[in-house]
UniProtKB/TrEMBL annotation:
The keyword Mitochondrion does not apply. The lineage of its organism: Bacteria, Pseudomonadati, Pseudomonadota, Betaproteobacteria, Burkholderiales. It comes from the Bacteria. Transmembrane segments: none annotated. Keywords: Signal. Pfam families: TctC. Residues 1-21 form the signal peptide. Belongs to the UPF0065 (bug) family. This is Tripartite tricarboxylate transporter substrate-binding protein.
Amino acid sequence: MKHWTLAAAASLTALTGTAWAYPDKPVTIVVPFTAGGPTDKVARDFAEVLRKQLGGQSVVIENVGGAGGTLGAAKVAKSAPDGYTLLLHHIGMATSPALYRKMAYDTKADFEYLGLINEVPMTLVGRSTLPASNWAELRKWIDANKGKINLANAGLGAASHLCGLLFQQSMGVDMTTVPYKGTAPAMTDLLGGQVDIMCDQTTNTTQQIESGKVKAFAVTTPKRLTTPALSKLPTLDESGLKGFNVTIWHGLYAPKGTPKPVLDKLNAALKSAIKDADFIKRQEALGADIIEDSRTGPAEHKKFVEAEIAKWGPVIKAAGQYAD
């Protein structure tokens, strides 16, 4: 009994010591996309405020792009479960299981869910020369030009790709999908009039809408947005596409098996970080909304992602657009 007690005490001391000392070296947040994109921007802003909540310990961003975010996610899933390698991922966490026939990880089983950080609304925009200036006119134009419409996106699995899929299915119209290698070239061709419409994040469209370089027709959230440039836009739901709701959210994850005391410390740090006034201001500038509900906690975060997997799986399957 004495030996068991000593062993148990040593184990408890080791675990408590790990949590108490954590973090005693830099924490790495893996972003599964290249530097400079919307998710990278969110991650870098978040890393700065997370650092403050972790006693000033360095929080480093590592970009591991490729395969629609699955390479970076796989790296974290296979990392040591010690709290020093984390993943910041967007909606791709929920859509990859349907988009990719083979993945090196299991979205539901190989991660500890820490909490959601923000949500980014999306807008339906069109080229400036489009012969429609509002949603009603756009819908008539779409009906009159079936089979002739070009719908741009930033590549397989991108936010614009997912929104475009749901938009076509909700409208009951097939469009010619034009995939690009990123948002920048897709937007460049929309500005140049080479493609007709695109559904993309406010982080990528607000400036173009404000300058009048593209026409804006609707937002993808259940409620209208409060951003001055977008406040007059109707929602697709109120415009007749009932239940239409697409936001690009970002969440934080750790490898499965990370000690609970470390997870608790990270979750507490996350909840404090997203209340930071500086962080909120930066996110508002990107058109993003900070999560203020129970999804900032592990259980509700995972429940939400599971619901998103169930939502997007049939949409992707119906479109038949997969990656090998």
